[in-house]
Each structure stands twice: as C-alpha cells, then as structure tokens.
Amino acid sequence: MAGLMTYGKRQWESVDAEIRKIIPRLHVTVEDLIPLIEADTNAFNNYLAALKLPKSTPEEKLERDVCVEKALRNAVEVPLNLAKTIGNIWLPLLKLVEIGNIATKSDMQVSARCLQTGVWGAYYNVCINLKELKSESDKTKIVQEINEQVKMADRMCDAILSILDKRND
Description:
Blueprint: H1 16-51, H2 58-87, H3 90-99, H4 105-130, H5 136-166
Helix pairs in contact: 1-2, 1-3, 2-4, 2-5, 3-5, 4-5
C-alpha cells in the first residue's frame, strides 16, 4: 500500500524511478509468502498423520519412522523457508520507508512488525519440530540458519521503525 500511495504521485515524482523498482520486489515476495503459510500448516498436519501410522510389526515401525522423519524435516524446512523468504523483503521495505509517502507511516510500521512476527512464528515452528530430528549436524545447521533470520528480522524491524520515527516530512 505504501508503495502504491507513492507511485505516480506528483508530490513523489523525485523517487518514482526507485519506487518502480521496489514495488515489484515487494509484490512478488508477498505473493510467495501466501502459499508458504499454507504449506507450513500442511507440513505439520503431515507430521501428525505420520505419527498415526501403524507400528505393530518391525516393517511397519521402520516405515513409520522413515515417514515421521521425512515429515519432520518438511515441518522444519517449510517455516525455515518462510523466514528466508521474509528475509528477501527487508531491504526493499527499508528503501521504501526511507523514500515512500509518509502518509502511510503506520502501514509501514505495521508491515515491519508483521514481518518480524512472521519470522518469530517460523522460529518457534522450527524449534518445536527440530527436537525430534535425528541428525545432530542438521539440527545445528538449521538452528544457526533460523537464528540468523531472527536476528536479521529484529535488526531490520528496529531500523525501519527508527527511520520512520525520525521522518518528519
């Protein structure tokens, strides 16, 4: 919204070229996020379904264990990818808050907080599912990746809010 409230407006002609670059990047990333949110729900549901598989015989137990591990991996990877996708939007959003229509200040503030919350939600989903993964090296790598995304989200959200607090135009 903030980009569209700036784009093509006479008052903001001086930043029109930059806004034209920012809007598509923001739009594409937002469009990418929607199916990832649904995929996160589906990934966890698939994990729950795998837990219900029979385990009466050694063969069933083995197949169940394989299915549970696969579903767990997916339940970890999907929210991690969600957090990484949000990571792609921070720099364009930062540029938008520097030059965009200040009348949309509250929308930009809420956007930053929502994105930060999305990363934290992904973090919690990763952490809760990660406990059951078998590979310790994978766990270590994934924890490092999701922690990087959380740090970036916190840092970028703070930077965006700080810029907006200082804008007086």
